[in-house]
Amino acid sequence: MTPLFAPLATVVRNGQPESWHAGAVAAVTPEGRLVAFQGDPQAATFLRSAAKPFQCLPLLLAGAAGRFGLTAADIALICASHGGTPEHARRAGDLLARGGFGSEDLLCGAHWPLDPQAAEALRQAGETPTPLHNNCSGKHAGMLLACRLLGLPVEDYVAADHPWQQRILKHVAGFCGLPPEAIGQAVDGCSVPTYRVPLATAARGYAALADPRAAGLAPDVAPAVDAIVRAMTGEPAMVAGPGRFTTRLMAATGGRVLGKEGAEGLYGLAVRGPVALGIAIKIADGGERCRDGVVLDVLRQLGSLAGAEFAELEDLHRPVLHNHRGLRVGEVRPEVDLEEV
User: Fold this and answer.
1) What element of type H or E holds 291?
2) What are the chain's domains?
3) What is the 8-class DSSP label of residue 22?
4) Where does residue 128 rank: exposed (0-12), middle (13-18), buried (19+ CB within 10 A)?
5) CA neighbor of 282 nearest in space, from 66, 23, 61, 6
6) Does an H or E element contain 8, and which?
7) Is pLDDT above 80 for 1?
8) Are 174 and 182 spatial neighbours (Cβ–Cβ below 8 Å)?
9) Is residue 23 exposed (0-12), middle (13-18) or buried (19+ Cβ within 10 Å)?
């Protein structure tokens, strides 16, 4: 019987095992065929922010790009878990202004920027974060633009029964190959719905990003998917931010690999090229300490990461652990062992 989660990484101190991280991995073709896994590929989990490319799709299908003059960087921010840098916050504010909104209309809440320098700059200036600094402010701005475009109510645009959220659910279901009623829902950290699906189903959704036509998406949907993928991979700094793994991964691979993190240790990957794949990874304990290294190990084992690309990201493969004096005391070692189907 396949265990729900399998060992994915070991934390070592002076070369000796101290802690372990478990999780599950699923790799799927655009046609929906499982090709590799570790742990249980049917383990169900919430997509969290890894759903953002799917949540953006109906906005583009509704014609928002033309109506509001959305650039690739704008679309990337709508799909982002951004760092809250001045550029991120400025662009989110600009998106809102195009629909006649302000930051007070955002229902995502405020938190300190994920980017350490941006957070420190706010503190030094004696300022507190606004909803524009929330890593999901771009997504929320996009939802408000959709409401403006279609004449939908904006007072509670985050509610699961709101017409726009219902439309998003249908598109998430279409990517994942499930009926909408089969998808579990809960409230995400930014107050919009989040979706619970089997890991292999999440991988199928990302495989559709890699090759929407082979995935069988409708002919009118594929160009919008292409626009989302081009935006995210072409403007990786908008999707995460300086020094962050997702931005570095897409930059190092020249956009051939699209990556998107979700909270609680979820990561989605769309690998484009001759061998298109969708990959979903879940770290069981919800932490991020081993996540980046595990992602790199999975890509390397699947032959989806070239040697030069791996070399550019190698410092993230086995992150070093330091004590409070700055002494190197250990590292986090990914130990992925995929089973091929």
Assistant:
1) helix 291-301
2) 6-340 (3.40.710)
3) E
4) exposed
5) 23
6) strand 6-13
7) no
8) no
9) buried
